[in-house]
Amino acid sequence: MTTSALAPRRLLPRRLPGASQELVLLAAILLIVAVVGWINPRFVSPNNLTTIFSGNAYVAVAAIGMALVIICGHIDVSVGALIGVLATISGILVTKGFPVWMAWLVPVLVGGAWNAGLGAVIAYLKVPSIIATLAVLSILRGGLITATGGAWISGLPPDYQLAQFRLLGLPSPVWFMVIMTAVAAFLLRNTGFGRAIYAVGGNREAAEAEGISCNRTIVGVFAIHGMIAGVAAVLFATQLQVIQSTVPNGLELLVITAAVVGGVSILGGIGTVTGAALAAILFSAIGSSLIFLNVSAYWLRAVQGVLILATVLADMARRGRAG
Amino acid sequence: MRSLLALFVGTSLLATPALAQTPWTGGDDLPATPLACDATVKTVAPGPYNGGAPTGAPNRAGKPLRVVDIPKLVGVGYFASTASGIQQAAKETGSMTVTTDGPTKANIDEQVTFIDNYITSGVDGILFAANDPVAIAPVLKRALKAGINVVGYDADAEPDARQWFVNEAEPNGVAKALIDQLASEIGATGSFAIVTSTFTTPNQARWITEMGAYAAKCHPKLKFLETVEAQEDNILSFNQAQTLINKYGDGLKGIVGMTSVATPAASEAVQQNKLCGKMAVVGLALPNAMKPYINGGCIKSTVLWSTVDLGYAAGLALRAVADGTLKPGATSFKAGRLGELSIINQSQILLGAPKVFTKADINDFDF
């Protein structure tokens, strides 16, 4: 691909400061585990570490898709609503007697198809993604409440509870998080499409000049993002024995925050999916440590806000846009 | 990274002094009025009647009534069960025909339109559960002006826009039901933690304050550990309950769920940790959400009000105002099989103690 020459140059500034965002996040997680574990050894019990890793796993999964969208130069504020809708679709299918595999697969396909359409509107009709996805957020949120009347879905069969399955002692959401992040990171780095995502987000004109179809890349990214949101929705729906068929409040912000704090530049063209997963784990670790340290959970929001600001400022400084 | 550490330690220090102030975090600062430890109901004077009155209503005593019931929305289990209670009242009095009709989503504009149409078509009585107490008031006042009897239930309107309101539960009643149930499940000296929405959510904060006051009075040896926030988010509620279990281990005997989201989520955490029978979950929740845990025997109970009784009392109250037997100034109301209900807050009929749903009867309810 002709983009191979372009992408590494774009990636270069991220590595300059010596420590990448991933290493900073990893260090922060280890530091929290060490300090809080030292204060209260129960914090580092296998059970609690499992809770920390699995607590935000579905957020980390959704953040993979969000990272792709942001790297590609766009944003999607409707992902929380989409996850709510897809989770409800999954729950309705299984309670109506459709086979479990269908209840798992259909949300992934519907999410992919829906977001491909959304991506097409953004790419071909040139609607700014923040506007288009804000509109979709309202449509999905309103539509969901109208369709379900806010009623919850209960009576889910036990073999449907994908998120409760364990492998080698770890809950399945952790496996989904790790494997999907690894696969996405590999594909992003080693395929033409992956490099095209960086190119389109970094410099659209240059990407076009290199022969990349920006519009097709954007539609593809949104479609993949939708499918990943479908996986996140299934993990969300199958964790408890009842599906709250409303949109989880502020989920889209949590997903975007994980991607941004994970080192994805909000300006596009830079970032990895690994950082997003680490950021999601960091939030979970902070949330858990607040309980262990008897600190009000309000600080979680504040800490997240500070982390966003710090990351964005650091990103701008790296790009030489801050004085 | 250094800034992160500083921030982290700093926030811990900042928040520590606040912990010492109130024994039960998450409550509000308003005074509490704990109920008696036993089941005796202390009668408090309801105060002067502040409900409205229909103008020029014909004498309806003993005459057949055409009544319309307009809940927040139709097609959900909750209001289907209040409607069935209203039908029970209609059947028992033998002289009311009640139609339940309303918007398919909880929308105040549509609800107003429904009420307007029924005023025009001419009914004797209107039962309602308001989507918005202020926005529904004008149309209900029009109904009163047209001589229609108006009684609310579940969600009130401004008092002068209706005659009576059947109140499903007062905060001190909810507190008593939860704490009595908790003490019966974890023992008089058991330790517990609370999972709430946020520390500033008005209903939950009120209940927590009332719970603290009632526990101090009637179950003084119960050991309160802490309150954690979980918004109204089921995954976060699950994670918070899970973290409490990790933090306290055997030192935690019970979790109190303050929201209909937190209670099933905490139950799920207890079940996944294989702590059924060792750790209790007590809380407010819809029966349907708790059926998997209660039918499976992991959790013993869930606390709410009986929606059937709520509709039944509302139906009887409407018959009684039309008959003129429930008048301003009343201090109690005879509600058929429910017995004598207290009048509170000037023009409200209190349904009584909340209902504790158990394995024995939870499957009789579908909401």
Kindly report how far apart the N and C termini of chain A lie.
Answer: 37 Å
Intertermini distance of chain B: 50 Å
Number of domains of chain A: 1
Structure annotation, total helices of chain A: 14
How would you characterize the largest beta sheet of chain B? 8 strands, mixed
Q: Which architecture of chain A does the CATH hierarchy give at level 2?
A: Orthogonal Bundle
Assembly type: heterodimer
The tally of strands of chain B reads 14
Q: Which secondary structure elements does this structure contain, and how are they paired or packed?
A:
The complex is a heterodimer of chains A (323) and B (367).
Chain A: H1 6-15, H2 21-39, H3 46-55, H4 57-71, H5 79-95, H6 100-124, H7 129-148, E1 153-154, E2 166-167, E3 170-171, H8 172-190, H9 192-202, H10 204-209, H11 214-237, E4 242-243, H12 251-261, H13 273-292, H14 298-318
Antiparallel strand pairs in A: 1-4, 2-3
Chain B: H1 2-19, E1 65-70, H2 77-93, E2 96-100, H3 108-121, E3 125-128, H4 137-145, E4 149-153, E5 164-167, H5 171-186, E6 191-196, H6 202-218, E7 223-229, H7 234-248, E8 254-257, H8 262-272, E9 280-283, H9 287-295, E10 301-304, H10 307-323, E11 332-334, E12 340-344, E13 348-350, E14 355-358
Parallel strand pairs in B: 1-2, 1-3, 3-4, 4-5, 5-13, 6-7, 6-8, 8-9
Antiparallel strand pairs in B: 10-14, 11-12, 12-13
Helix pairs in contact in B: 2-10, 3-4, 5-6, 7-8
Task: Tell me what you see in this structure.
The complex is a heterodimer of chains A (323) and B (367). The two termini of chain A are 37 Å apart. With 323 residues, chain A is an all-alpha fold. Chain A has a single domain (2-318), classed as ABC transporter involved in vitamin B12 uptake, BtuC (Orthogonal Bundle). In chain A, helix 5 packs across helix 11 (214-237). Chain A is 71% helix and 2% strand. Helices cover 39% and strands 17% of the residues of chain B. In chain B, the strands form 3 sheets. Chain B has an 8-stranded mixed sheet with strand order 2-1-3-4-5-13-12-11, sandwiched between helices. A 4-stranded parallel sheet of chain B has the order 7-6-8-9, sandwiched between helices. In chain B, strand 11 and strand 12 (340-344) form a beta hairpin. The radius of gyration of chain B is 22 Å and the shape is elongated. Classes of the chains: A mainly alpha (323), B alpha/beta (367). At the A-B interface, helix 2, helix 3, helix 13 and helix 14 of A face helix 1, strand 7, helix 7, helix 8 and helix 9 of B.
